[in-house]
Design a protein that fits this description.
Helix content is 38%, strand content 16%. Helix 6 (179-190) packs antiparallel against helix 12 (376-386), helix 8 (239-262) packs across helix 9 (271-280) and helix 8 crosses helix 10. It has 12 helices and 12 strands. Helix 7 links the parallel strand 7 (200-204) and strand 8 (229-232). It has one domain (1-396): Amidase signature (AS) enzymes (Alpha-Beta Complex), CATH 3.90.1300.10. Strands 1, 2, 3, 4, 5, 6, 7, 8, 9, 10, 11 and 12 form a 12-stranded mixed β-sheet that branches. By secondary structure, it is an alpha/beta fold.
Length: 396
């Protein structure tokens, strides 16, 4: 059994606050939370998972609005948490600062880039965690660590004071161990959340063919048990069409925001991030322009499919968390396959919630629901009313 203190040392950065509270009353009074180290807290540095940034950054002059909301609702910050370098990762593997421990599967990665927040919440070191999600950075660690996690509708929560990674994708999200807590946090941002009301569930049958067979076979019965659902084809244009739309847009954003900083002479970057920054500099403007149009077409089709009451059911990730010792080549292969699932909400700027569904070979595996724009409250209400799914353990 991994020691809680060891988990805390791996999850929290040394340069953040250990206790910060602005009010002792409010909707979140008595609760504690962690903040991903891409998000500013006044008086403290944001290192972005990079040693040069930690060395050079000035303390933030203002606290990000996404953090002010829970603070003003009475919650207390207990620390800032580790992240993949520049948010360029899906696993939580940071060669500069280490890998936060996955309390639910200590020999495996916690998922990223909101890795430290997921680790801290899963270990019970705080009640909820604040993170960011561009291409899966809330959803994947939620799945890997057995948590509830919400990627919010793009633009719904301010990203001021948050490191811009890919501004046409970046969102703020949050993580909790149970759906009731996640809903409570959501109410601090969105106001009172009523009953979920009638739901029209849409099961993306072809999406369940993307995971490895053991994952797909374990998740599909759970998905069908939630409520009667209409089976639909999600990838009508083909999976590659979605990925070929996502890549140039996300890479172009990355180069636009971080390319200049990352390529300064003498800059210290891990090999994987250095290669990703170099790749982002090579995006063909014609491919970028084509992807802009494709993104709008995909968004229009999916929003029409969802309507006002639809929720799309898909797997969250395609496989179990990689082992902590997995080589970079294995990480790249994993990322590309899971990205086929996470790029859906990212491209279409939609809210998505991960729900812990089953255990496969002793590891948590999540199921996701996607709603139409500003459908965050419906997802939170549905998950809270659904309650914990009876956990079934399946061999890999």
């Amino acid at each position: 059994m991994t020691d809680v203190q060891e988990i805390a040392l791996s999850a929290f950065v040394a340069h953040g606050p250990t206790s910060l509270q602005m009010r002792d009353e409010g909707a979140l009074a008595g609760l504690t939370f962690a903040v991903k180290d891409l998000i500013d807290v006044a008086g403290y540095r944001s290192a972005w998972g990079n040693p040069d940034r930690l060395r050079d950054a000035e303390p933030a002059v203002a606290t990000a609005p996404s953090v002010l909301v829970p603070l003003m609702a009475g919650a207390r910050i207990v620390g800032k948490t580790h992240t993949d370098e520049l948010a360029c990762g899906m696993f939580g593997m940071n060669p500069h600062f280490g890998i936060p421990i996955n309390p639910r599967a200590p020999d495996r990665v916690p998922g990223g880039s909101s890795s430290g927040s997921a680790s801290a919440v899963a270990a019970g070191l705080c009640d909820f965690g604040i993170g960011t999600d561009t291409g899966g950075s809330i959803r994947v660690p939620a799945s890997f660590c057995g948590l509830y996690g919400l990627r919010t509708t793009f633009g719904r929560i301010s990203v001021a004071g948050v490191m811009p990674m890919a501004p046409s994708f970046d969102t703020v999200g949050f993580l909790a161990r149970d759906a009731a807590m996640l809903k409570r946090v959501g109410e601090a941002y969105f106001g009172t959340i009523g009953a979920a009301g009638p739901q029209r569930l849409l099961l993306a049958r072809d999406a369940f063919d993307i995971p490895v067979p053991a994952i797909g076979a374990a998740l599909l019965p759970v998905a069908r048990s939630l409520a009667p659902a209409e089976e639909v084809t999600l990838f009508a244009e083909g999976v590659d069409f979605w990925l070929d739309t996502f890549r140039p847009l996300q890479l172009h954003d990355l180069w636009s925001t971080l390319g200049g900083w990352a390529t300064m002479p003498g800059r210290v970057l891990s090999q994987a991030v250095e290669e990703r920054i170099a790749l982002s500099a090579t995006v063909d403007p014609r491919m970028f322009a084509k992807a802009v149009i494709q993104r709008e077409a995909l968004t229009s089709r999916l929003v029409r499919l969802l309507g006002d009451d639809g929720m799309l059911i898909i797997p969250t990730a395609h496989d179990l968390p990689p082992l902590r010792t997995a080589p970079v080549s294995a990480q790249v292969a994993f990322r590309e396959k899971t990205l086929a699932l996470t790029c859906i909400a990212s491209l279409c700027r939609l809210p998505q919630i991960n729900i812990p569904a089953v255990e496969v070979d002793g590891c948590p595996v999540g199921l996701s629901l996607i709603a139409a724009p500003r459908g965050d409250e419906r997802l939170l209400a549905f998950a809270a009313e659904l309650g914990a799914i009876p956990s079934a353990s399946v061999p890999a």
